[in-house]
């Protein structure tokens, strides 16, 4: 296997203290040369594929300031410090939607933008979801619940209405399951 | 539909001048309150699903400094200023692997990490790929080509060896195609 490793020579802090810590590092390349790497360090997150008894997936529409628009996504959220990812998935589903789950099963985890960021998202499949009467979103979270069947999801992926990476991974996984 | 929009009140520059520009913005929330948003602005990228005549997908293994390891990914790269994304896909395939394509077809585009970043990746499907004799990677790029069949890809997704978001989207798309 080719020698690929890059090692840190120096690091300059651009931002620290929130859920994102950002550094500009100087690295040693495999050929001995130097290069610069901006690194966004993220605390990690979970997302949850929750499907109703009548085979509709639970999505949320929310404003994404960085993109300048509202996106349709699977329920997701950042891990609290020390939080178990599975617990986070249960919590986010209950916080962002009128649904909650008995338990969740791990599906996979992945890097969202490994070219500059270490964010890992843990994807879970909710088991036995049920509608709750009350919705208690975070105080600074404004989310709208949207239910979609398989055909609608396929159309929304094709026409670009669903264009969030983690959501595409979760929904392609759902569509690949044997019905 | 719920009122979801957040609008900019103020913006502080953390980094400018490279392919990542980073800001810490203050925003007005839909309920009139204020909040803070770190925004990473990215120039955009393409990735390419390239499959050989004997149904093997062309992947690259490369060091991802942010993650502290080497990842297995579809060939991908940042858009040059003003570059057509399709042209970028053809270029990256030829630069990173011993293969090149006659043309590429658009599959979909998506946000990688819309919670804090505006990066859009354009996914293309390469058409009529062929092996070239010479490999000419960028001077600061160290990449290794890996070919995988469908069963190997399914296993590598399941066991976590493939754990890059854009790559999962491209490969799930490939696996969902009728053979």
Summary tags:
179 residues, homodimer, 10 strands, 2 domains, NUDIX_hydrolase-like_dom_sf (chains A, B), GDP-mannose pyrophosphatase (chains A, B), alpha+beta, 4-stranded mixed β-sheet
Q: Would you give an account of this structure?
A:
- Chains A, B: Pfam families: NUDIX.
- Two copies of one chain form a homodimer.
- Chain A has three helices and ten strands, in the order E-E-E-E-E-E-E-H-E-E-E-H-H.
- With 179 residues, the first copy, chain A, is α+β, with helices and mostly antiparallel strands.
- Chain A is elongated, with a radius of gyration of 19 Å.
- Chain A has helices at 85-96, 150-158, 165-176, and strands at residues 7-15, 20-28, 34-42, 45-49, 57-64, 69-73, 76-78, 99-111, 120-131, 143-148.
- A four-stranded mixed beta sheet of chain A has the order 7-4-9-8, sandwiched between helices. A three-stranded antiparallel beta sheet of chain A has the order 1-2-3, with no helix packed on it.
- Chain A folds into two domains: 7-42, no CATH class; 45-177, Nucleoside Triphosphate Pyrophosphohydrolase (Alpha-Beta Complex), CATH 3.90.79.
- The interface between A and B is large, with 69 and 69 residues.
């Amino acid at each position: 296997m080719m020698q690929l490793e890059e090692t840190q020579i120096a690091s300059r802090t651009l931002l620290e203290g929130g859920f994102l810590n950002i550094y500009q590092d100087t690295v040693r390349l495999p050929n001995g040369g130097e290069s610069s790497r901006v690194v966004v360090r993220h605390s990690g997150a979970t997302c949850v594929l929750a499907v109703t008894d009548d085979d509709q997936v639970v999505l949320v529409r929310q404003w994404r300031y960085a993109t300048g628009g509202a996106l349709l996504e699977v329920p997701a959220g950042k891990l609290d410090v020390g939080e178990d990812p599975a617990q986070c998935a249960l919590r986010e589903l209950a916080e962002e939607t009128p649904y909650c789950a008995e338990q969740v099963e791990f599906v996979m985890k992945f890097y969202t933008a490994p070219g500059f960021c270490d964010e890992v998202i843990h994807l879970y499949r909710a088991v036995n979801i049920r509608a709750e009467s009350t919705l208690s979103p975070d105080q600074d979270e404004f989310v709208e619940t949207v239910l979609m069947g398989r055909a609608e999801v396929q159309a929304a992926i094709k026409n670009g209405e669903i264009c969030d990476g983690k959501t595409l991974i979760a929904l392609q996984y759902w569509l690949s399951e044997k019905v």
